[in-house]
Amino acid sequence: MGRGEKIKFKKLQDYPDIPVSTATTRYNKTGSWRNLRPIIKDKAAPCSKACPTNTLIPQYFNAFIDEDITNAGRILTLHNPFPSITGRVCPAFCQTGCNRRKLDERISIREIERVVGDAYLPYKAEQKPEKEIDKRIAVVGAGPAGLTCAFYLRKMGYKVKVFEKEERAGGVLRYGIPEYRLPKEILDKEIEVLDNMGIEFEYGKTLGKDITVESLKEKFDAVFIGIGAHVEKRMRIEGEEYFLSGARFLKEVALGKKEPPGKKIAVVGGGNVAMDVVRTLLRLGAEPLILYRRTENEMPALKEEIEKAKEDGIEFKFLTVPVKAKQKDGKIVVTNIKMKLGEPDKSGRRRPVPVEGSEYDEIYDAVITAIGEESDRSCVPEGILGEDGWVYADKKTGATRIEGVFAGGDFVQGPSTVVEAFGWGRKSAEAIDRYLRGEDIGKVKPPERTVSFMLVQMEYFEEKNALKPRELTPKQRIKSLDIEENPGFTKEEALEESLRCFSCGVCNSCGICYSYCPDAAILWKNNKPEVDYDYCKGCGLCAKECPRGIIAMEQEV
Amino acid sequence: MAVEQKVIMGNHALSYGAKLSKVQVISAYPITPQTQVVELLSEMVGSGELDARFVNVESEHSALAVCIGASMAGARTFTATSAQGLALMHELLHWATGDRLPIVMGVINRAMAAPWSIWTDQNDSLSQRDTGWMQIYCESNQEVLDSVILAYKVSEKVMLPTMIILEAFVLSHTSEPVKIPDQKLVDKFLPPYENPYALTPDNPVAVGAVASPDFYMEFRYKIQEAMEQAVELIEEEGRKFEELFGRYYGLVDPFYTEDAEIVFVCAGAYSSTVKYAIKKLRERGKSVGVLRIRTFRPFPYEAVRKHLLGKKVVVLDRNISFGAGGIFFQEVKSALYGKKRTSCLGYILGLGGRDITPEDIEGIYEDVLKRRKVYEIIWWRVKK
Question: What is the pTM for the complete model shown?
Answer without folding.
Answer: 0.79
